[in-house]
Design brief:
heterodimer, A: about 475 residues, alpha/beta, 11-stranded mixed sheet, globular, B: about 475 residues, alpha+beta, 17 strands, about 20% strand, elongated
């Protein structure tokens, strides 16, 4: 096994023991990325020089006897909508070509302070709008399991990077399923923490009230370690919380006997759910039951409206969040004779079709005369869905479902935007309600990975991690794509 | 025909915080362009706003001083529009749930009391500034993100003069309580006026026109008077008023249409997801407010016995009022102090364009002069001289030493009076023959020989006594 394919926890252990240097690990990771990226296209920027320099500094500090951080020497891949000081950050858009942020996102900075080394910035659907990573200005990313298929999205590059073994941990952002869905399609863990658990400072906003930064990993332990490092209040993000992370430490060893896992019948059939995915997920739930979990039925009828509410609220916020890309202060400007022409030309040509579609949609639903019927109504539905989850959690500790209704689609197969939007059917509810949710690799259908989604009450990420670790003890760690 | 005028005001008032509303950039005025800018106030991708607590405290202070209901929970919204001086493409403001509701301001117009109800006060951020030059247009973001409060009044004002009095009173109040420096010329106190007219006070409100670009009290007065006349002439000639925004063009002395209701911006307000609701902590109202202008006027009138006019003048401006308070704290008589500050000091300060804080004569120095006046160590005339010399920068101790003490002992005056009578038999005879007016001449002579130190009353009584004594 290639050295950098070990878990993050294991890598830090052997680096700190002096068995191998951070430089060697970083170089091994970079060599694989440089060899595979021309085909996989999971990275927009490969940070070779900076990564090797950082690894050398780390090795020197370990040599001086300084106490290394909990992720010392771990290569990480960061979604390219998370700002990295001095490293181009494009959000997958032409409009940000050449944009070099003057600061680093808090979530990334915390991982780097813990010793992690950024080896690449990963590809994504432009501004995180999409479910396939085909809507990137830098071309589509391929699924490492089958290069004719998409990796999911929008954090497809980060999911593919971990699945391909480029790095044990990567970062994504999840607005409607953008971490969990690609995790599912690429056969890795993907965690969307509670809204407010991880700082959003430095995340290029898509829909602020739904966006959350989270990790991908191939072991439950790595996932927990990454969350532990990133979580907590950030003075730069007024919506971040100081909620305790103590329970995360002991979650992995916790017995899941007696845990009540809620199953929602309307999520287990129909709705375009493929039989292969349904069977694989059902089988995993049976495993939970064998391990002592109690399966209970819950009902979430309002979540049928989640997709509709989401595609009003998310574009509404996006239309406002993306107004700053006006060609005035940063990024690309199309010169023109008048200010309105400059705006129109810059935004009309530098944004991709999917982004323009959502800006138009969002502008419309906020407009005078339509706001009540669309935006306010969607807000009400959001409130009802939140309430419905709260009620459901009176009867269960977690809710299980498929993450994606289907395995990874073929590249280019999805031409209907609505069909793409429907892939987020099961994941959107957790964003609307601000709940933590995790996709666990739970088997294969047609030789492609299938993910099982677990949703927990706010700030109860430890429940997700307990089930993931228990399942991992039973089924083994998900492997590197081959 | 005559028309009833109805005006409501929206005042934007820059809060006197050191740093901006959502970042730690400085708010100081006059820095070179784009030197007080960071990724947050420049709206860089990935940044988030964090609320400046000092701005909230000042907004609350303004709300309390204006009798508003302070809201334990308020929220922020986004007001969306494109303009190069608005870095994020939206302004963060409080649209749905502002921090202050209601309230009122009482003030005087031509000696008459007037009360204007307030609708609300909300917190919002300022935009940057565009400069248009021959080389093109440039953006300065120093002001972007500066904290403002917008104070919105009900349509309770009835004339341009009332609006000006309201604005002066409001500006005095916000400066008084340290909420804003109120500099109109620097844009830290700006007013928009909604003007409409109707046939009678019982009629429903007419169509309103919003006036902008009112950069001084004079502009406010002229613009409203022009607009009222314009609307009256429109209606008198059978036309209708169009709801629109008009800009005051001071050079031409007219208001010009900027945009009509049909062209009005659709700001697509929605709740700001990056800021949680603003929940005020317990005890936010435990900090005592300073004595407000209206309260101080009442105290001066009712407890110190000052005239209503004096009380108004001495509280019209926070610096002057603080000066007067400091003079009082030396133990000086209130009425005398009020006189001296207004008559002797204010004239000089106004002539030199100085504020009370810049006065060359400190409140303590004035207090010392007034103390000598009260002790009769200085005559009124000498006290004025002392003030004049102190104003020119002379040290008080030197002035007092030079002027010496007033002579109040009659025996000390008898010798020069005796001499005067002996030297001027003709004048004495005229006096004795009935020309009582001549007493003034005698007093003047004694004052001259005593270099002003003799007390005129004492001189007069000694003179009268000794002149009468020559009759025998």
């Amino acid at each position: 096994m290639t050295i950098h394919h070990q878990s993050a926890t294991q890598l830090t252990r052997i680096i700190c023991a002096g068995d191998i240097s951070a430089y060697e690990v970083t170089t091994a990771s970079l060599e694989q990325i440089q060899a595979e990226n021309p085909n996989l296209n999971a990275a927009i920027t490969i940070c070779a020089e900076k990564a090797q320099a950082a690894a050398k500094r780390l090795d020197e500090s370990i040599g001086r006897g300084e106490i290394p951080g909990p992720l010392a020497g771990v290569p990480i891949v960061v979604k390219d909508n998370l700002c990295t000081e001095g490293v181009e950050t494009t959000a997958g858009s032409h409009i940000l070509r050449g944009h070099i942020p003057p600061f680093t996102a808090t979530a990334v900075a915390r991982l780097v302070n813990a010793g992690a080394i950024i080896v690449a910035k990963s590809n994504l659907d432009e501004f995180a709008m999409g479910s396939s990573t085909e809507h990137s200005a830098f071309g589509a990313t391929k699924n490492p399991w089958d290069h004719t298929r998409v990796p999911g999205g929008s954090s497809g590059g980060s999911a593919a990077a971990v699945a391909a073994g480029w790095a044990p941990i990567s970062l994504g952002s999840d607005t409607g399923g953008s971490i969990r869905q690609p995790a599912s399609l690429c056969g890795v863990y993907g965690l969307k923490p509670t809204w407010g658990r991880v700082s959003r400072f430095g995340l290029i906003a898509f829909a602020s009230s739904l966006d959350q930064v989270g990790p991908f990993a191939r072991t439950a332990q790595d996932l927990a370690a990454a969350l532990q490092v990133m979580a907590g209040h950030d003075p730069h993000d007024a919506t971040s919380t100081a909620y305790a992370t103590d329970a995360l430490n002991t979650a992995l060893e916790k017995d899941i006997r007696g845990q009540r896992i809620g199953i929602c019948p309307e999520w287990m059939s129909g709705n375009g759910l493929s039989t292969g995915v349904a069977d694989t997920v059902s089988h995993a739930i049976e495993v939970f039951e064998k391990m002592g979990a109690k399966i209970v039925e819950v009902t979430l009828p309002k979540t049928q409206e989640a997709l509709a509410a989401y595609y009003v609220l998310a574009p509404a916020e996006a239309s406002s969040n993306l107004a700053r890309f006006d060609g005035v202060r940063f990024g690309v400007r199309n010169e023109a004779n008048t200010l309105p022409e400059m705006y129109k030309s810059t935004r009309g040509t530098q944004f991709g079709d999917e982004v323009i579609r959502r800006i138009l949609l969002g502008t419309f639903v906020l407009s005078d005369g339509y706001r009540e019927a669309y935006y306010r109504q969607a807000q009400r539905v959001r409130g009802q869905i939140t309430h419905e989850f709260e009620s459901a959690f009176a009867d269960c500790d977690l809710i299980a479902s498929p993450t994606s209704p289907v395995i990874a689609p073929l590249i280019g197969a999805q031409t209907d935007p609505l069909a793409m939007y429907r892939m987020d059917e099961f994941t959107i509810g957790a964003n609307l309600a601000g709940l933590p949710a995790l996709s666990i690799p739970c088997g294969y259908s047609d030789s492609m990975p299938v993910g099982l989604q677990l949703i927990a009450p706010k700030f109860r990420e430890e429940r997700l991690l307990s089930i993931a670790a228990a399942y991992e003890r039973h089924a083994g760690q998900p492997g590197v794509a081959s | 025909m005559t028309w009833d005028v109805v005006i409501g005001c929206e005042v934007h008032c820059q809060l006197a915080t050191k740093s901006k509303l959502f970042c730690s950039c400085s708010t100081s005025f006059g820095a070179p362009p784009n030197t007080q800018v960071c990724p947050v106030c420049a709206g860089y991708p990935g940044v988030l706003p964090t609320l400046n607590g000092a701005a909230v405290e000042l907004a609350i202070r303004a709300g309390r001083a204006l009798g508003c209901e302070i809201q334990d929970s308020s929220t922020f919204d986004r007001k969306n529009y494109f303009y190069p001086d608005l870095p994020k493409g939206y302004q963060i403001t409080q649209y749905n749930r502002p921090i202050c509701l209601g309230g009122s301001l009482e003030f005087e117009v031509d000696g008459q009391g007037k009360s204007v109800r307030l609708t609300r006060i909300h917190i919002e951020e300022d935009a940057g500034k565009l400069s248009h030059g021959p080389g093109g247009t440039v953006v300065d973001l120093n002001r972007a993100g500066t904290p403002l409060i917008e104070i919105v009044s009900e349509p309770d004002l009835r004339s341009a003069d009332e609006v000006v009095a309201y604005l002066k009173s409001l500006r005095n109040l916000v400066r008084w309580i340290g909420v804003s420096d109120g500099h109109m010329e620097q844009g830290s106190f700006r007013c928009d006026a909604n003007v409409s007219i109707r046939k009678g006070t019982d009629e429903p409100f007419g169509t309103r026109v919003e006036l902008k670009n009112l950069n001084s009290f004079m502009h406010v007065k002229k613009a409203i008077e022009y607009e009222v006349a314009r609307q009256a002439s429109e209606l008198d000639s059978g036309r209708k008023i169009i709801q629109q925004t008009r800009l005051w063009d001071d050079r031409a002395g007219v208001t010009r249409a900027m945009r009509s209701k049909e062209e009005a911006m659709d700001y697509r307000y929605f709740p700001e997801p990056d800021l949680p609701p603003l929940q005020l902590p317990d005890g936010w109202d435990s900090v005592p407010l300073p004595e407000l202008p209206a309260e101080r006027v009442a105290r001066y009138r009712d407890q110190l016995g000052l005239s209503a006019y004096d009380a108004q003048v001495l509280t019209a401006e926070p610096d002057l009022s603080a000066y007067f308070e400091d003079v009082l704290s030396t133990g000086a008589n209130p009425k005398t102090s009020a006189n001296w500050v207004q008559v002797e000091l204010l004239g000089r300060l106004n002539a030199d364009g100085l504020s009370a804080t810049e006065s060359p004569v400190t409140p303590d120095a004035l207090g010392q002069i007034l103390a000598r006046l009260a002790d009769k160590k200085l005559s009124g005339k000498l006290a004025k001289l002392a003030l004049a010399r102190a104003y020119e920068g002379e040290k008080l101790a030197a002035i007092f030493e030079d002027l010496g003490e007033q002579v109040v002992d009659p025996n000390a005056i008898r010798e020069p009076v005796k001499q005067l009578i002996e030297d001027n038999p003709a004048q004495v005879q005229k006096y004795l023959d009935g020309n009582q007016q001549l007493i003034g001449w005698f007093i003047g002579q004694i004052m001259k020989t005593s270099k002003g130190r003799a007390n005129p009353q004492v001189v007069k009584s000694v003179l009268t006594e000794m002149l009468e004594a020559t009759r025998e």
